[in-house]
């Protein structure tokens, strides 16, 4: 029989934060979560800068974004794995955090290196390179994706630039792994099924868990 001060049931954000807070003040806590691994739930899956700041307050020292993106290179296919090296901010949030001064949001090399290593270990092909973060989902500038593509940007998504910037400001490791859910420049590509897409995201999530706990 094991005795603890407090049992917290449910390891979502509320339960995990409660358990962290209690452990931080020296209480012995048992956190019980019914799901064995990462799991899907109804959610936009967006980490806001405020949420990231709260996670850092709780003692989180690695932020790994795991999500989907629009592929910007014609040879990319749905389900491909991308590991971001840098994220050009195509909106002003990251720029506001550095008081308008020039800054290149860059992923932590240790996380990038470990992610590439783990992907190769699993035999999962991976593309490593620059991405762009934009807060515009339906881009009114029809030529912008093509210009990003020509400059060698691999993909567009919505969060990495601010996470990399917060990583630099808060002195924590930040990384980003993405599955291509759409290819937004012209070119031949094969669409995969929803099941294959889900399998690709699940595999990436497992990979990310290995990376952040390595
Ligand atoms: C449509 C939608 C979109 C959203 N998009 C975002 C977003 O983009 N970004 C964002 O930050 N937030 C988003 N949210 C909000 C976010 O999902 C919630 O604020 C957050 O998940 C609440 O955390 P929680 O810990 O209270 O509950 P949950 O996240 O639901 O966690 C509860 C946990 O308890 C576990 N559990 C339940 N019963 C038991 C049991 N009997 N034994 C053991 N374990 C149990 C469950 O498995 C679960 O892991 C969204 C919410 C919705 C509805």
Topology:
Layout: E1 6-9, H1 13-24, E2 29-32, H2 49-57, E3 62-71, E4 81-89, H3 93-97, H4 109-121, E5 126-133, H5 144-150, E6 155-157, H6 160-170, E7 173-183, H7 194-213
Helix pairs in contact: 2-6, 4-7
Bound molecules: flavin-adenine dinucleotide.
Flavin-adenine dinucleotide is lined by residues 9-15, 32-35, 42-46, 51.
Description:
A 5-stranded mixed beta barrel has the order 3-6-5-4-7, surrounded by 4 helices. A two-stranded parallel sheet has the order 1-2. It has 214 residues and is α/β, with parallel strands linked by helices. The protein has one domain (51-213): Rossmann fold (3-Layer(aba) Sandwich), CATH 3.40.50. 36% of the residues lie in helices and 23% in strands. Strand 1 (6-9), helix 1 and strand 2 (29-32) form a beta-alpha-beta unit. Helix 4 crosses helix 7 (194-213).
Helix segment count? 7
Let me know the number of strands: 7
Helix/strand/pairing category: alpha/beta
Oligomer: single chain
Bound molecules: flavin-adenine dinucleotide
Major sheet characteristics: 5 strands, mixed, barrel
- Rounded to the nearest angstrom, the distance between the terminal CA atoms is 31 Å
